[in-house]
């Protein structure tokens, strides 16, 4: 079936479409009841199906003859280590770890928090929980104790799994003291903390509570996969909401297995035996769908990278990994490519490597500006695909379906809705808008399998945040439009859309323009309050290394550029040069905080911020420029 036929069928006959796709999964009991609509608007997929996700990712692949194929390649420039695990080896490690967890009291339905760096044991921990039907929640290793404590109190884990340290450039980050502190702050206490000791910083173990990972495994008996119901939770992934309390996105087992068994071949064009590299961290949704579960459930080899795009040791590290492991396709965030481009603008390092194994590059997580996209396309001579999804959906909403021969791509667009997703645009009153009309992007219910249908311990919040705003639709929180051919254009979170004298404008669009300037490495456009116009845009730019432009000249040129391309109505009159932009650890620019600083409002550094010190610097800089009202 072509992309168009598949998409049409998935929307007009969702039950029949997904009942067919469910055939991709080796269930213990195949579901007969494909789709249930609940009165509150949420849905249940494959309610009577029974399966085990770890079995699908490992044992099933071995049954299909892939036992000796490499399942996971650990590539760690920060420790100068590489290690390969075949499907057999990985299954045995995971089965033993699952046995050890069971001996410590973990059973089906129990919670386990995983707070670990990008070491293969982190993937093993996730898979071991899945094997027992336990519910893991991976907390990104960089989160501070307060954030970890919030998650511990919400997930109420029986165990916490951690490592003594993580490594960043030349810095050793001790994890264990952070876990200790989090447990002091949390009211819930796990029975044990299992600690993987790394030689770079050995942790002190508290007698009785803390256990050494390797010693615990010595006597462990391997555990077999435990059958679970389709709707049983596989994991919780906490993500930021509009309040300080993170949202616990719940992923079910059955819908997730079907969605990823469909998505990897259909969107990413992956086949068993292909080498896939999801460049992210197990602490994010990509680490779940595209580093661990997706590639393994589809018989691929997954690259597990403990390093950065630059400085481990240089801006050529991505290209080195691609050549060395013959990577066929990869996922990364645009911010990583911008970091590489900043340090290696001419691609001198890239040219040293053989990228002939590579078929596609997939970018998502934030707006992909055309400058970055073209730079990457020209240097690699490979297709660079933008695609769009969220922690909540767990897999792409819009993307090119390369596996269906869908090569009809549109620059600037995150491409068309993937089969299963009926993407539409509504205005503030919930009225459907026509082609090219900008509004809130929504997805008509039902959401396809794999998407979150509830929040951990808080179904009411799920309904409130996602289903109540526009009845009959899932509210994505993103603004944008869809053109007459179905290509979707994401212009940013709805709160990044600004209103200047009643004209609706996209800060994303302006950022795209500023990024065209040869001196600009990266930028953010935020709305600042204006007594007359409501809001006006402000450009915050970081210069490329060695760029000569003065701030006054640059501002003049950028103002002219926006005026020329968007028009005087944009009221873009100010651009300020900053040394750095504040970002989350996953690379998203923290525009909301920038807005608050510029408007002189009080702000608290968000928990996800990479480097909180930067905010003071920026406030001072904007104060000097006469912008941050409170200085
Ligand atoms: P997260 O749940 O942290 O992955 O964030 C999801 C949000 O990131 C989306 O709602 C979008 O605002 C943004 N996002 C993800 N992918 C893209 C993309 N390709 N283009 C623009 N924004 C994106």
TrEMBL record:
SUPFAM superfamilies: Acetyl-CoA synthetase-like (SSF56801). Residues 509-588 form the AMP-binding enzyme C-terminal domain. Residues 3-56 form the Acetyl-coenzyme A synthetase N-terminal domain. It holds the Pfam family AMP-binding_C. Residues 66-444 form the AMP-dependent synthetase/ligase domain. CDD domains: PrpE (cd05967). GO terms for cellular component: intracellular organelle lumen. GO terms for molecular function: propionate-CoA ligase activity. PANTHER family: ACYL-COA SYNTHETASE, ACYL-COA SYNTHETASE SHORT-CHAIN FAMILY MEMBER 3, MITOCHONDRIAL. Belongs to the ATP-dependent AMP-binding enzyme family. This is Propionyl-CoA synthetase. It comes from Pseudomonas nicosulfuronedens.
């Amino acid at each position: 079936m072509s992309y168009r036929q598949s998409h049409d069928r998935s929307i007009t006959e969702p039950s029949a479409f997904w009942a067919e796709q469910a055939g991709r999964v080796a269930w213990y009991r195949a579901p007969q009841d494909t789709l249930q609509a609940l009165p509150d608007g949420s849905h249940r997929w494959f309610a009577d199906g029974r399966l085990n996700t770890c079995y699908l990712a490992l044992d099933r692949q071995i049954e299909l003859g892939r036992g000796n194929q490499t399942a996971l390649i650990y590539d760690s420039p920060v420790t100068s280590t590489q290690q390969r695990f075949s499907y057999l080896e990985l299954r045995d490690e995971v089965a033993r770890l699952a046995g050890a967890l069971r001996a410590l009291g973990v059973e089906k339905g129990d919670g386990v928090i995983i707070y670990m760096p990008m070491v293969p044991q982190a993937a093993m921990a996730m898979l071991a929980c899945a094997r027992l039907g336990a519910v893991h929640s991976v907390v990104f290793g960089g989160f501070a104790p307060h954030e970890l404590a919030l998650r511990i109190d919400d997930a109420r884990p029986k165990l916490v799994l951690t490592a003594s340290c993580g490594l960043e450039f030349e810095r050793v980050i001790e994890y264990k003291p952070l876990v200790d502190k989090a447990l002091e702050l949390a009211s819930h206490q796990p029975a044990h903390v299992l600690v993987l000791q790394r030689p770079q910083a050995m942790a002190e173990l508290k007698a009785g509570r803390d256990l050494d990972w390797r010693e615990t495994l010595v006597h462990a008996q391997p555990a077999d996969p435990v059958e679970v119901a389709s709707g049983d939770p596989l994991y919780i992934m906490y993500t930021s909401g509009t309040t300080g309390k993170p949202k616990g996105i719940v992923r079910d087992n059955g819908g997730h297995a079907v969605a990823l068994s469909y998505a990897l071949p259909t969107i990413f064009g992956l086949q068993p035996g292909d080498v896939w590299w999801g460049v992210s961290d197990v602490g994010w949704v990509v680490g779940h769908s595209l580093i661990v579960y997706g590639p393994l459930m589809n018989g691929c080899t997954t690259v597990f990278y403990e390093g950065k795009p630059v400085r481990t040791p240089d801006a050529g590290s991505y290209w080195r990994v691609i050549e060395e492991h013959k990577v066929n396709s990869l996922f990364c965030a645009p911010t990583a490519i911008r970091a590489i481009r900043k340090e290696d603008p001419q691609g001198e390092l890239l040219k040293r490597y053989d990228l002939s194994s590579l078929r596609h590059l997939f970018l998502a997580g934030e707006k992909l500006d055309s400058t970055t996209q073209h730079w990457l396309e020209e240097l690699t001579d490979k297709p660079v695909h933008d695609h769009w999804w969220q922690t909540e959906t767990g897999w792409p909403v819009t993307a090119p379906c390369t596996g269906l021969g869908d090569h009809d791509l549109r620059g600037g667009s995150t491409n068309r809705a993937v089969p299963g997703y009926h993407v539409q645009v509504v205005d503030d009153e919930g009225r459907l808008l026509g082609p090219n009309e900008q509004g809130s992007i929504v997805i008509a219910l039902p959401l396809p399998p794999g998407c979150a249908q509830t929040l951990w311990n808080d179904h009411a919040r799920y309904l409130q945040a996602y289903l109540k705003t526009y009845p009959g639709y899932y509210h994505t929180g993103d603004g944008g439009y869809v053109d007459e051919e179905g290509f979707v254009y994401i212009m940013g979170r709805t709160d990044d859309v600004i209103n200047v004298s009643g004209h609706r404008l996209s800060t994303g669009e302006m950022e795209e323009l500023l990024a065209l300037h040869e001196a600009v490495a990266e930028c953010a456009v935020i709305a600042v309050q204006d007594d007359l116009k409501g809001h006006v845009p402000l450009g915050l730019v970081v210069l490329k290394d060695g760029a000569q432009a003065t701030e006054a000249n640059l501002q003049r040129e950028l103002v002219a550029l926006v005026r020329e391309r968007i028009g005087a109505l944009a009221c873009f009159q100010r651009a300020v040069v900053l040394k750095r932009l504040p970002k989350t650890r996953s690379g998203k620019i923290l525009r909301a905080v920038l807005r608050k600083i510029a408007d002189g409002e009080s702000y608290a550094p968000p928990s996800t911020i990479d480097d909180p010190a930067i905010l003071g610097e920026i406030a001072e800089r904007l104060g000097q420029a006469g912008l941050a009202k409170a200085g």
